[in-house]
């Protein structure tokens, strides 16, 4: 069944409209990490996007009010981790304000460029930050891929309708 858009009563732009529309958009789930002055920082991101193949570059968004923003705003390198559907609790931990994100049971190690690298992810990258672009109350971070590993096992974790889920066959 096809639904025709109701053009007679559109809602004016607002934060609520944007959130409502993007709840319908399924997104992959990533965790972004960096080494901060007080130790490792990280956050869950659903805004990860491939930007360029030559050079290999990606982007992600982060709110300027986020606890990780001060470290990300100064970081030369970041870690990007693609989560599997078995990592819903890890995604929730890195999304929760005030959580001890790198304490047990989070398994990680210091990787290249002193970037925290999470264990058991589907794929990970270490990237060099090349720009931070102001975008309202967020910053869009552009980062050039330096190295990584796409060989993790499993299926991707998704975020849709305000909750984490997996792919359906």
From TrEMBL:
Its EC number is 1.-.-.-. The keyword Oxidoreductase applies. Keywords: Oxidoreductase. Residues 22-166 form the Flavin reductase like domain. The keyword Oxidoreductase applies. GO terms for molecular function: oxidoreductase activity. InterPro entries: Flavin_Rdtase-like_dom, NADH-dep_flavin_reductase, Split_barrel_FMN-bd. This is Flavin reductase family protein. It comes from Streptomyces doebereineriae.
